[in-house]
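Hello forum,

I keep getting stuck at the same step: I have a sequence, I want structure tokens, and every attempt I make locally crashes halfway through. Rather than fight my setup again tonight, could one of you with a working pipeline run this one for me? It's a single chain of 189 residues.
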Amino acid sequence: MTKLEELISKIEGHSVYIQTHNYPDQDALAAAFGLKYLLEYNEIAADICYKGQVDKLNTVAMMETLDIETTYIDDEEQMNEESEIIIVDGQKGNSNVDDFIGNEIACIDHHKLQETDMYRFWDIRSDVGACSSIIASYYIENNIDMPISVATALLYGIKMDTDNLSRGVSDLDIDMFYYLFKRASKEAI
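Reply #2:
Ran it on my machine without issues. Output:
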């Protein structure tokens, strides 16, 4: 069973929220965007959400250029206790990840491993430079074609979080960068 198949088997409903950290950067949004497409490919509706703000102009430009839709959660009425949440590029308990009313069922991250008992599924690889690399690997492992916009977002997420492959880079980051580079829009980057 691949990581994506394992994740899908842990989702009980037909829709989920994909939560980024409170001030989503390029990697967080790219990972969420890539995961959203994978879930929808598997007939699970997904909304990208956060609480905070997008505070960098290049992140706003990325969202506009690639048509990445997000939901700002400012009112707990948007969710309920039954809502299933997948956290990307952060973990429950981090100061930059608000605790929404829903149930955090999964976590996909590239930061230091923390408490995982509350998740049904987790894929936390602290040796990887970008969460986008983990999500990109799900496409390859499952032989799923990705739209150009997703490839572009994931490539940009890796580029920004690893500072052009010069910081905290793993073999997976390099492999995924190479894979995505051939599929992404160079104009959009």
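The chain has a mean pLDDT of 95. If your local run keeps crashing, start a new thread with the error log.
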